[in-house]
Specification:
By secondary structure, the chain is α+β, with helices and mostly antiparallel strands. The strands form two sheets. It has a four-stranded antiparallel beta sheet with strand order 3-4-5-6, with no helix packed on it. The protein has a two-stranded antiparallel ribbon with strand order 1-2. 43% of the residues lie in helices and 9% in strands. The longest helix has 25 residues. Bound molecules: zinc ion (ZN). The site of zinc ion has 9 residues, from loops.
């Protein structure tokens, strides 16, 4: 898949988790947020429905200021990118729902002043994806049969580079804020089966896993890794490890 499209979809896919993180006290990366969310799916579903941009929301008492800063910075990056791309390639007729409306600070009410930003980050990511994929760049047949000029021009190469740079920065910020960037974190508790050290492995392109350095000596009911030096709990097995460790998921997010 196109690298920019993949990063845009990661941002959209993790956005609900970031919104939830803003309303949650900062936590260690253990247990993994994704797993806690899987076990509390109702919360995420509600948040996905709530797509108002952070810039238009009240945050009377955010519990995680770092996550809020990240969210606002990522919105700014993507919204500004959409402004830039629209200025360069958008040729839509008035009233076309595919148009990106730039913010207009002189508008009489805050929603109109926000332009398309009022639809939130999801929509902005989808719109940018359309430009990166050169969607709607062919002439369109109108009702009277005449050909109308395309609503968008093909994105020039320098703006494709600009989009790639901006989107990757935004993606990295979201993943870092959620502890999903590539990292290895020693867990506070030792292995319940052998007492050796446990390590959490997280990466942006997949779910986290945990390894025990006890390897063959460890009696845990988890497979050995390919070099047989460590026991590995992949995503599906993590609940079993967490149960053995006695971690309370109802408070840990
Ligand atoms: Zn072990």
């Amino acid at each position: 898949m196109n690298e920019v499209v993949r990063a845009l979809r990661t941002i959209r896919g993790q956005w609900a988790a970031l919104l939830l993180a803003i309303e949650t006290p900062p936590a260690d990366h253990w247990p993994p947020r994704q797993l806690a969310h899987t076990m509390r799916q109702g919360d995420d579903e509600q948040l996905v429905e709530d797509r108002a941009p952070l810039v238009l929301r009240e945050h009377p008492a955010p519990l995680n200021l770092a996550a809020l800063d990240t969210g606002r910075a990522v919105e700014r990056l993507i919204f500004d990118l959409a402004d830039t791309l629209a200025a360069a390639v958008q040729r839509t007729e008035p009233g076309d729902p595919r148009a990106w409306e730039c913010a207009d600070p002189s508008a009489p009410d805050s929603h109109r002043a926000a332009g398309s930003r009022r639809h939130g980050l999801h929509w902005a990511c989808v719109w940018v994806e359309g430009r990166v994929l050169d969607e709607d760049t062919a002439p369109e047949r109108e009702l009277d049969g005449a050909l109308a000029p395309p609503p968008f021009e093909v994105l020039p190469l320098h703006l494709l580079h600009e989009a790639r740079r901006t989107v990757r920065i935004a993606e990295a910020r979201v993943l870092r804020a959620l502890g999903l960037d590539r990292r290895e974190t020693p867990l506070p508790e030792p292995c319940p089966w052998c007492g050796d050290e446990l390590t959490l492995h997280s990466a942006p392109d997949g779910p986290p896993s945990v390894t025990c350095s006890g390897g063959r000596e460890c009696t845990a009911p988890a497979p050995l890794n390919s070099r047989e030096r460590a026991r590995v709990w992949e995503w599906d097995d993590l609940p079993e490890l967490i149960a053995a460790l006695g971690v309370d998921f109802t408070t840990a997010v």
